[in-house]
Amino acid sequence: MKIVKHSGNIVDFNRDKLKNSLLKSGANKMIVEEVLKNIESQIYEGISTKKIYKLAFALLKKSSNSHAARYNLRAAIQLLGPAGFFFEKFIARLFISEDYLAQTNLFLSGKCVGHEVDVAIMKNNVIEMVECKFHSGKDANSDVKVPMYILSRFNDLKDRSHLIYTKNDKILGCWIVTNNRFTSDAILFAKCSGLKLLSWDYPEKNSLSKKIDNNQLYPITCLTTLTISEKDKLMVLDIILVREILDTPETLEKIGLSPNRIKNVLKEASELCKYI
């Protein structure tokens, strides 16, 4: 059976690929098989992957909110927009979880011009800049022009002293992080130029998606028990991660949730963070 991807490409329906994505939600094999059978009974020639995703999400939600939240992870990252400001905060937290110091939204003077730097990180006294390329659409990839441009900015900054953590900090490395993917040319250029890349599926064994799972860095945008408006209010209060709700449950009351809804949100958050 042929299905239509987000890009418009027509491909064969891949049951194993769908099964693997369902298993990653944390649902057990019995639930996954039930969901697969239900989906297979409803799909038709030419159905979009978007409709299949919505159907799978709804079926998982019936079994567990946290399963649906985990399945919704990539879409949830795309909700850290629209401009990517909250994505930068999310990435800073990712590095902090790996024992870095991190600062966001800096303006630093280069040799030639000034630059806005999304995130500055430090570990073992080595300071690096992190540039975040946020895409609200699933199919927008970062091509070779992205690392070429960011390399020029890094080169303008690296030989200067900056006030970041001390008065004479040097930027010794550069990361580029995206919520989508890099093209093959972008990866080749970055490797050749000494830039570090992190995307949804790259590097294969330590990608953004794997880091999120391994460190339980689930964004609040994946929770199914909160509305989009409520998620936005929490992010304005600097609550970006699900675990931060568990650490500061009083913020749910601040945004106007009833005691019963607070109980449901905390239940989903707790189940999600116990996924691993």
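The record above closes out task 2.4. Task 2.5 opens with a second protein, given below.
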Amino acid sequence: MSVLRSSGSSVSCVQDQGSRPGYNSQQALADVITRTASQLGIRGLAVGVRQVRRWESANPPWPQPDVRRVLTHLLGQDVEDLGFTAPWGAGQGPQETGHTASTGAPVPWMRLPTVPTRTVLITQPATVSTDFETVTRSHRHLYWSVAPATLHPAVLEHSRLGCALLPEVTSATRPRLAAALAETYLLAGRIEFFDLREPEQASETLLRALQAAGEADDPLMGAAALAHTAFISGWAEDRDAAVERMVAARAYARRGPASAEFWAWLDAVEAECETRCGNTRIALHLIGHAEDVLADGSEHTTPPWMDWFSPTRLAAFKGNTQLKAGHIPQARETLLQVLEALPPESDKQRTVVLGDLAAVEVADNNPQPACAFVGQALDQLALTWYATGMDRIREVRRTLAPWQNEQCVRTLDDRLYDWGMIISALQR
């Protein structure tokens, strides 16, 4: 395999005399990086000889996030190990104070380890995969109640443990351990994107989930990781990237076997991306197809780790799309039914539904019930923080501007911007 090799503080494009040959020229390296970016669904990334030459200088510039993703995927090493120095210094992250735990103390940003690709030492018993899975499963359950800034460091540390164990197990144990590691990375990426609103970091973490899924040869986990990267592109309104990643996710799901629920979730993800990009007609068609898939059912079971989707969750997607499409009465009816059907453990989703119901009332020129729904959402956020739910509330507050001087809006502002809420939101 061709590699960049660290040489002091710089990076050289060299011919490695070891077991993995390097690139014969700077142009060859630039070409393979550009091709690999396209294969990973990164559009518009092109690296030239001049950029490679800069990497070979005494003080190579820190690569952009997409370039770092390609280098990590291509070479199997962290960029620091290739000779690059992060501008924020060793052991720190680009937003060192970005995570704040419930204690108020900063949580250091933790660099993700590279997923090992082959066994070099066997020292662990076969039971290690079961033990690792037990903790992974516990993290999955804790996600629905534990504060994300508290759970996230524990999940990342668990991923580090998995990467350390992976080279130390037998080939028979490795797929099961790798699958649990992939789930751990997937959970970390979900927390980073949905709870902490860190899409760039989530992209890198989900790439690790995809790598671990490959080690496990688990196509459904691979499909889930790819679909979550499509979420990130869709929310950034990059439709081309979102569609391309969904095509890849569906290709992996066909290797499944995927359950009806899994296929419906893929439709729902794509519908969310289309909605974010303004294509509500396409989104409603996808949701209708998902409803038909669920009604038909299938003989295959849904993986236990896919605990974030159900027919009720699909209806929540539908209500949001109806809202964005301007189908206000239908959206109100759908979302009220969802609110009634949500189970007690779906507190995070409840804040999103309440936010959408508030938006429905704003669209129907009803500021008082809109403020009441926002108040209920704030009550829920005080118990279970969810950045995506807070985003919905902020969107509703912006649309309430025409009623700025109404008492219900002023009362809402007093609640929304009190000391505790504003400090909590800014910390997170």
